[in-house]
Amino acid sequence: MTTDPDPVALVALRDQPLSVDEVLDAVRHPSCGGIALFVGVVRDHDHGAAVTSLDYEAHPSALDTLNRVCAEVLGRSQARRVAAVHRTGSLAIGDLAVVVAASAPHRGQAFDACRDLIDTLKAQTPIWKHQSLQDGSTEWVGLP
After folding, report:
1. What are the pLDDT digits (tens) for 43-94?
2. Strand partners, 133
3. Rounded to an integer, what distance in angstroms lies between the CA atom of residue 66 and that of residue 13?
């Protein structure tokens, strides 16, 4: 556990393009020699089907859940700071969908916390994507 006054450095849901630099800068800390960053990008396929675009929708509780997830990851890791920003709205192939980062005294601790953060975010945060496929069909991904 950290004594940093702002260990959850940045948490946001945005309908505008995301900034890797913003997330990276948010987790910088003078005691940390390692920063791990994960960037999720909209790809052109999913489960063998060609994807043309997608929309992310977030439940009204998503921001609170994302804050809780960040706090939980801090509590069970050696990270000093974490940050998580997720897109909502319409995205095109190649757009950044999510950016998370963790800083820690050492690289292994940062990698572990960053992976825990993205995996827990994906499992617990109520954000769903609606994919448009090349064949004209659509599908929801991540619904409960």
Report:
1. 999 988 999 999 999 999 999 999 999 999 999 999 999 999 999 999 999 9
2. 51
3. 9
Distances (CA, A) of 43 to 84, 120, 143: 20, 21, 19
Helix/strand/coil for 111 = helix
DSSP 50-106: EEEEEEEEE-TTHHHHHHHHHHHHHHTSS-SEEEEEEE-EEEETT-EEEEEEEEESS
Helices 62-75/107-124 angle, 10° precision: 150
**Residue 1 — very low, low, confident or very high, per pLDDT cuts 50/70/90?**
very low
Alpha-carbon span 73 to 79, nearest angstrom: 8
Q: Which residue type does 53 have?
A: S
Q: What is the pTM of this model?
A: 0.93
